[in-house]
Specification:
The chain is α+β, with helices and mostly antiparallel strands. About 50% of the residues lie in helices and about 15% in strands. It folds into three domains: about 110 residues, Beta Polymerase, domain 2 (2-Layer Sandwich); about 230 residues, Orthogonal Bundle (Poly(a)-polymerase, middle domain), CATH 1.10.1410.10; about 190 residues, no CATH class.
Length: about 650
């Protein structure tokens, strides 16, 4: 008996074979093509969900193993148990590393015969955990000079994918140092590949030497690194493993356990790579210092005590000289002899950016003096989380101190002490109580524009924008001021003069932005209030306080920012293009009703901020465009100030 399904299938085949019309044949093939693509998308979704980082599971198992082994550990063997639980066998680790390296070379040498490949990071430093990945620097041959990181990473990713030895590719091409993350199948190891920054090859062996300079340093680095991972102080948008190691090195420099990096470079010839000095005298021996009486547990307690009270807001950690410097002093070029080379490098190479002092924690790289080690902790996320990290330092100090007092042995670790230190649950409970008493400050960083929305004493709506100077802005203002002066008077330009010039520039630019970019009619008002205190200013500063307080009636009739995009690539001619676009939009845009009073002023004592107040005069919600205007002004102000500064200085930021 014939199967009806087979008969229908045969009928379908006969019909398709007898069809000779190409148009019908094309139409009959199109739907299956669409169905195939849809089915592929459906099949790929569960695969993407399954691609999880295997190191997460390894870390969880590692943490459970540490807890169990410390509970039943014999007294005096706590540190040995901790290291054996966290650290892989060094020989087997290097065998795996060489296996991954050989597979990388085999895949890439077919297309790049002279490829260079080097290992760096925690594997070279000797502090790799079982969940650590391998870090490789790869220099591909025959690359175009202007090749973009995304193109280089994409091509290497395609080559490694076809080799069949790697999987789970994740390109990160927009980071400061673009990398390609992947997973080596045979060794089950995560791999990070860097194609642009070779400095890690030079500084990793130096860090390894520093960690073995004293027997206590290596033990402390293992404990602090694991503590940072357990307590969520180390990781994305937090402190990096590399940074926390340098924090330990800097603290030990204060205790005279380690000398400053400058001492290691003092008796050897400079080893310059792109103007950065990577010289290091590894023959310098550990001198018997007075701090050798301090035990490892006391140094660990001191580490947490030191950073719970460190002034991160106003100081830069500088392991090169073994001391902290005030950020305000570093900004002034001739004030600190230690930073003369830093300012010389900035003057020599205009493409270099100065250190960003707006970060919650700033650690200067002892070798790449322009950079901060903590480049991964910028922005609002760090402001919200960094105070919690500082409180966790405080909790760790209190935990160690209480346990040492209970045990009465200040020079020995106990399994109980380490278990308390690594207990994330108790730490989080303590942190919740701390936050209820002292809420985290959720304000933005000092370098960012902040918007404070509040009701004024009158019935009119008041909105305030406060602008703080950024390092790039002050640097350009400084260069512009130096050009205007004679060489003999250039040294008289101090920090106050730079801030004064910045305030004048911002006030002038805001007025022009409102008039020429937002196309508002502006009527100047007489000053209702003027500061009564007189200020002793420089020759460039007028005694008339009206220069630093401006008040206008503003009226708007057209919305020139509806659907308008910000200009990302800013040049000297960008300002003229923005003005032309506003003029064209004014002719074609929708009518609006906007009436307000704006007051622009600065603090004439310090010139460290400019405030812009807006008072809505319409006061009703109906037919009132004030809220839309203020939102657009707030969102575009920083970018427009950059455009005006570039136009004024004739230099690209």
């Amino acid at each position: 008996m014939n199967n009806p399904q087979n008969e229908s299938a045969a009928l379908t085949i006969n019909k398709s074979s007898n069809n000779t019309d190409k148009k019908h044949e094309h139409k009959s093939r199109k739907p299956p093509h669409i169905d195939t693509r849809k089915s592929r998308k459906i099949k790929n979704k569960p695969k993407m969900a399954q691609q999880q980082d295997p190191n997460v599971r390894i870390f969880e198992l590692m943490r459970e193993q540490v807890k169990k082994r410390l509970e039943c550990c014999e007294p005096g063997r706590e540190l040995e148990v901790l290291q054996t639980s966290l650290m892989p066998d060094y020989r087997s680790l290097w065998l795996k590393c060489m296996e991954v390296k050989n597979d990388l070379l085999f895949a890439l040498q077919r297309f790049y015969p002279f490829v260079r490949l080097e290992v760096f990071g925690s594997t070279v430093m000797g502090i790799a955990f079982r969940d650590s990945d391998f870090d490789f620097f790869i220099e591909l041959s025959r690359q175009p000079l202007n090749a973009k990181p995304a193109a280089i990473i994409g091509k290497a990713m395609n080559i490694l994918r076809t080799s069949g030895q790697f999987t789970n590719f994740l390109p990160i091409s927009h980071a400061r140092v673009p990398i390609l993350k992947c997973y080596h199948i045979r060794t089950s190891m995560a791999v990070d590949i860097n194609f642009s920054d070779s400095y890690g090859i030079l500084n990793s062996p130096i860090v390894a030497r520093l960690l073995t300079f004293d027997n206590r340093i290596y033990v402390l680095s293992v404990i602090i690194k694991f503590w940072g991972k357990v307590q969520n102080c180390v990781g994305k948008n937090r402190i990096s493993n590399y940074a926390i190691v340098w924090m330990l090195i800097f603290y030990l420099q204060q205790q005279q356990v380690l000398p400053a990096i400058a001492e290691f470079q003092h008796r050897v010839h400079p080893y310059l790579v792109n103007h950065y000095n990577f010289a290091f005298d590894d023959r310098l021996n550990n001198q018997k210092r007075c701090s050798e009486l301090l035990g490892t547990s006391e140094l660990l307690l001191g580490f947490f005590k030191f950073y719970r009270s460190f002034d991160f807001e106003s100081h830069v950690i500088c392991p090169l000289y073994g001391r902290a410097f005030r950020k305000a002093d570093i900004m002034i070029s001739n004030k600190l002899p230690e930073f003369r080379r830093y300012h010389d490098l900035l003057a020599m190479n205009q493409s270099l950016s100065p250190m960003q002092f707006n970060k919650c924690i700033c650690i200067q790289d002892p070798f790449e003096s322009i950079l901060e080690i903590t480049h991964s902790i910028p922005g609002i996320i760090a402001n919200l989380e960094f105070q919690k990290i500082v409180w966790k330092f405080e909790y760790a100090a209190e935990t160690i101190e209480a346990e040492l007092q209970t045990e009465g042995e200040s020079t020995k670790f106990t399994g109980k002490l380490l278990m308390f230190l690594f207990d994330a649950e108790k730490c989080n409970q303590w942190l919740q109580q701390k936050m209820s008493k002292c809420p985290v400050n959720k304000t933005r960083s000092l370098q960012e524009t902040t918007v404070l929305k509040q009701q004024s004493s009158t019935s009119a709506c008041c909105n305030v924008i406060t602008i703080k100077p950024t390092e790039n802005h002050l640097s350009m203002i400084r260069e512009m001021s130096v050009k205007k002066r004679d060489d003999s008077n250039a040294t008289k330009i101090d920090n106050r003069t730079i801030h004064l010039s910045w305030s004048e520039f911002v006030i002038e630019s805001v007025i022009l932005i409102l008039r020429d970019i937002f196309m508002l009619e502006m009527e100047k008002l007489s000053m209702s209030e003027t500061p009564s205190t007189s200020v002793n200013m420089n020759a460039e500063c007028s005694d008339d306080n009206e220069a630093f307080t401006k008040e206008f009636n503003i009226t708007g009739s057209r919305d020139v920012f509806l659907g308008r995009k910000q200009t990302k690539k800013i040049t000297v001619n960008t300002l003229n293009l923005e003005k032309l676009e506003s003029q064209e939009r004014y002719k074609q845009s929708l009518e609006i009703q906007l009436k307000a009073v704006t007051k622009i002023r600065t603090d004439i004592n310090n010139f460290d901020e400019v405030t812009i107040e807006f008072h809505d005069l319409i006061k009703t919600k109906k037919n009132n465009s004030f809220r839309t205007f203020f939102t657009n002004f707030d969102q575009n102000l920083n970018n427009l100030l950059k455009i005006y500064l570039v136009h004024k200085c004739g230099t690209i930021l």
